[in-house]
Amino acid sequence: MSNAILLAPGPVQLHPEVQKILALPMIHHRTPEFDLILRRVLENLKFLFQTKNSVFIHTATGSGAMESALVNLLSPGDEVLCIISGKFGERWAEMAEVYGAKVHRLDVEWGYAVEVEKVEKILLTNKKIKLVLTQACETSTATTQPVQALGQLVAKTTALLVVDGITAVGAFPLPMDQWQIDVLIAGSQKAVMLPTGLSFISLSEKAWKISETATCPRYYFDLRKELKANKNGETLFSSAVPLVRALDFILSRLKELGLEKHFAQLRRRADFTRDIARSMNLTLFSKAPSDSVTALQLPASIKGVELREQLEKKYEVTVMGGQDKEKGKIIRIGHMGYIQDYQLVTTMEKLALALQDQSYNINPEKIKNESEAWLKARPQ
Ligand SMILES: Cc1ncc(COP(=O)(O)O)c(C=O)c1O
């Protein structure tokens, strides 16, 4: 058994029970046994999304649910506003263009949250904007967006707030109904703590009305048909039985623990990473740091791509580097999934060792001791 540690911002380490469930003998998805599981999962997803609306399961990665949002809401020629503060904001814009939308780009400096006043100004001068597309956490910069304030703003207009919560739903508070989010999206291999393969989407009543008249072609992701199938206790197409069974375990566990306590566990990991990074003389890249992933700015003397590779090959710790223009300049450490305290300590110790390998002035033993003391002083 490998002792390798995986602290990427997805895919994440799996709970041992999830691993066991995934290895169970296969059952057919049209059986009373699976029907029961599916009904429970669909109900419990509402708890995770904090909504009274239906939540749908797509057998597709997170980008699939992003595409689902667009094909269910857009008509060619529609105007949309994309908040672009990193790689996944760019993805919104690319996808919307593919489906014939006229895209208004609101470019935000990487590492910063959008200024809500700027969004307001754009909406005031462009009354035709139908969708406001954002991330809750822009994973490429480990930055959160002010979703609650955006919800208040967009609710006053005819537009819909569409939130990619792929590294947010299940990681920190994002109550869909309370914050007036019109479309919320989650992904299995991130804060939902499962392997890659499922994504989730929910629509507000306001969004359902728009979806009824939207004219984009849709087939696999047709939520109107999915809703009908779900009402009959089925998914529209074959269900990913092992993943749904594992999801049943995750959701039941979350309900038992309570979302607040679960979020507090992630916040503790994020606080730990930020504090220990500070004593390594590393600074945070983000000005609005997320609890699901932390991005650390590397000193100019450090070769970031080599550092990450070294961490993986020599020290068996997988974290992520920067993407696009931040490649080689930052590293990103994920806080989602099944993580034990000793793995947090080992990650920071190995990071210190990898930095020392590049002649960075650091004492890995001291970092290890500080890490252990930090976690001991703040038990879960
Ligand atoms: C915020 C965000 N959006 C979208 C995606 C794309 O998800 P997937 O790779 O599952 O399609 C990711 C994946 O890293 C993400 O973090």
State the major sheet. Answer: 7 strands, mixed
- Enumerate how many helices there are, as a single number: 13
What's the end-to-end separation, in Å?
Answer: 27 Å
The CATH architecture of the largest domain would be 3-Layer(aba) Sandwich
Class inferred from helices and paired strands: alpha/beta
Strand % is: 15-25%
Account of the 3D structure:
- The chain is an alpha/beta fold.
- The chain has 2 domains: 5-10 and 258-377, Aspartate Aminotransferase, domain 1 (Alpha-Beta Complex), CATH 3.90.1150.10; 17-256, 3-Layer(aba) Sandwich (Aspartate Aminotransferase, domain 2).
- It has 13 helices and 15 strands.
- The strands form 4 sheets. A 7-stranded mixed β-sheet has the order 2-10-9-8-5-3-4, sandwiched between helices. Strands 11-12-15-14 form a 4-stranded antiparallel β-sheet, with helices on one face.
- Helix 1 runs antiparallel to helix 9, helix 5 (116-125) packs parallel to helix 6 and helix 11 (304-313) packs across helix 12.
- The protein is globular, with a radius of gyration of 21 Å.
- The mean pLDDT is 97.
- Residues 10, 61-63, 88, 135, 139, 164, 166-167, 187 line the site of pyridoxal-5'-phosphate (PLP).
